[in-house]
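QA checklist item 7 of 12: single-chain prediction sanity check.
[x] sequence parsed
[x] length recorded as 84
[x] structure emitted
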Amino acid sequence: MKSIETLDEYKASKALLFSYVNSEEVVKVIGDDTADNIVTFLRSNVFVHEQHFARCFYLDVQRFDAYSNTCLEGTNYGVKYCEN
């Protein structure tokens, strides 16, 4: 899977997702109510946080090649690269 890097790509992917969920083939399998519930869930619970997960919004933020997911990663980075 290729990452989305521009806002235009993100908007196109979002539109494709909505058109897929509302497509005739999908609605025939899951029903109108379920398709509407999926769209409502996406709009109210997922896309309200798009600033946090969509890479196109924070692609230009400088990270200086130093990041960690846990405090242990930060400690290991300091031990490995700090020469004091």
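[x] summary fact logged: The helical segments are 7-21, 24-30, 32-46, 50-53, 55-58, 71-81.
[ ] second reviewer sign-off
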